[in-house]
Design a protein that fits this description.
- With about 140 residues, the chain is mainly beta.
- It contains 1 helix and 11 strands.
- It has one helix spanning about 5-20, and strands at about 25-35, 45, 50-60, 70-80, 85-90, 95-100, 105, 110-115, 115-120, 125, 135.
Length: about 140
């Protein structure tokens, strides 16, 4: 291998390392909801599976009167919680808006600073009206 090839390879490796370092941080955590086991029991937090977690800079959630919600702004990452209500996304360090959304639940908006490995969010079920039935992005 020539000296020029080695220098090029090392330069490329450095660029990839620096670019990869920018995404080494992330956001992970869990989403819960309150649930009563019986009429007389106190509610307790339980994991919420398949909740959407939307992360971006300066996101806004417009709640539609007909049940159609809209997220406005630039989305940096989007994921869905697993069966244990947990999620993980890779993001560059910085401040973000996190919106937690699931059909028929009241959505919640949080501000976070990445890296954060202990984020917890909670949303509650809507019992009185059928709202939050669809979500779109603009």
């Amino acid at each position: 291998m020539s000296r020029k090839s080695i220098v090029l390879l090392l330069s490329l490796s450095l660029v990839l390392f620096v670019a990869g370092s920018a995404f080494a941080a992330g956001l992970s955590g869990a989403i819960t909801t309150s649930k009563k086991e019986s009429q007389m029991a106190l509610p307790k937090d339980v994991p919420l599976a398949r909740a959407q977690v939307i992360i971006g800079k300066d996101l806004d959630l417009d709640v539609g009167g007909s049940g159609a919600d809209t997220i406005r702004g630039k989305v940096a990452a989007k994921t869905v919680t697993n069966d244990q209500g947990k999620f993980t996304v890779n993001l560059p360090n910085g401040k973000y808006t996190v919106i937690v959304w699931k059909e028929r639940y009241t959505p919640a908006t949080y501000s976070v600073t990445v890296p954060d490995n202990n984020f917890t969010g909670q949303i509650s079920i809507m019992n009185d009206r059928i709202l939050h039935t669809s979500l779109s992005f603009k």
